[in-house]
């Protein structure tokens, strides 16, 4: 039996070798598969379709399991459901889901004394039943009719609530058409702007709509204003970011007065303010640009609040006057992160501020009252805590400037998202909604925090969950998830699809490896640039911890990572292939060096502050050459691998896993009948894969059915 043909008779695609050479710093690399990059080439499309057919054939025996998994996902979901209503001026805004529908409907109802009330004074609303006077603003299911892919990139109402602006992507390339709807007549009054990026905001007089544009490298580099009803050709450029390391975006201040514009690279920020009452005015500086100074500006009505790292590695909270300034020395320091903390962002309200931070490796929120003069009463601050070892607390939707209660969301691996609200004292804390999870008994499961020991002695946190009856006797199947880049924290959160793993005896763990932000800014710094390999060795240490403690069997441990987490998967497959039985690599960044060497590709120049610049720096080139997965596949036994991508992914091109899979198949010595290497490419989708919840569930069922089959864990244990 060769690697090419399975017992079913399916033949693995073998793309032709068409060598191209790459030479940097005296090192020449011959790449036989770079030709697969051109998605306009019919041969490339034919190859991708052949890969999909091969994946179909090699997983056909799992049809019944896939069907069962989808039924379980649906069975753990209240299909006809709704969000907690959100108060915006005199309206309550709601999103509703309906059984059988992939996409939600967005509705609203006017505030009036006769509304039925639930906890916390929020309107009491039933799933599937509109209140009297409730208006459907946008039915995404109807809008998506006939589209293979549909995604909203923004949804905002005008200041007087008479207009709705929303952005639509029907290909997955994250370039949007902007629609403006008259909520009185129900008519679409503007669809002039196409190819937009993320971000929408109305001017105070709602005559103008602000939006962003991306360049050829998909870098969001311009902010524009569009007069509603006018041709896009008459739009006006507000500001342009010419430095390729920076992307630019914006948000509307909570009091509606100001457009806060921020450009940022990985290490440096610059901010401006634009008066929305004078929408054609020019933005004014709000901090300037200073290399290495990373900050975020929040308009707080009578002052600015700034979370920054100027002289504060774990960040500090400062305030500054509203007058234009490019000098951080004008910032008045209010609060510096304590040891073990990382300040993240601040949201301002008329009577208090909410500061999001990390403490002890977990996300939480600190509430700080404002005095009558608008200053912050730091002595009266309090943190929102719930006491669980794996509790994640984050701010929820809080659009009201004058509101006296703040909403937040609590979750963990075994706690479904729970929306609550509290006042500054904590005396009025109310749970507004616990996400209903049918057929779920939390008493059947346990969750815990453990610590692995990295090679350099660093303690690596793991979040772990399992069925209560699963013993740590070294026999259980295991699943380890990781990410570890961009200071993104992979916090414990509930996912109904994981119940299907837990109920088959799989021990689930998240490795909070360096390169992420779980343990603060220094945690991130220790897993980027010339310390990036720590991310990979930390993950292997986490895997070894699960085995050495008896939590999982040494031959039944699987792993998953997506995007930069897909790089992690490729790297650990090369570093410790014997440690993993099977790996899922979603939209994996596995041809890392090729991408970071090409400044013309999307995001590359901006990524140099994350990975280093291998074009100009031979040390960075050498270091990346040592870990880039595609170029380091070894002739040894590997785990089974399932790589998944999308043809229209702008962030990680489909060619990366296409090349990687081809090299794996021709290099590894594994029995590929027992440990197959599969590749799935969605032909109309982007970085997030399929759109629509049912189609996403079908995709997830395919991946998990394959994984459970590889682990020998296809049967329910309870």
From TrEMBL:
The keyword Oxidoreductase does not apply. PANTHER family: PROLYL ENDOPEPTIDASE-LIKE, PROTEASE FAMILY S9A OLIGOPEPTIDASE. This is S9 family peptidase. Residues 494-713 form the Peptidase S9 prolyl oligopeptidase catalytic domain. GO terms for molecular function: serine-type endopeptidase activity. The keyword NAD does not apply. Belongs to the peptidase S9A family. It comes from Candidatus Brachybacterium merdavium. It holds the Pfam family Peptidase_S9_N. Residues 20-433 form the Peptidase S9A N-terminal domain. Residues 1-25 are annotated as: Disordered. Keywords: Hydrolase, Protease, Serine protease. GO terms for biological process: proteolysis.
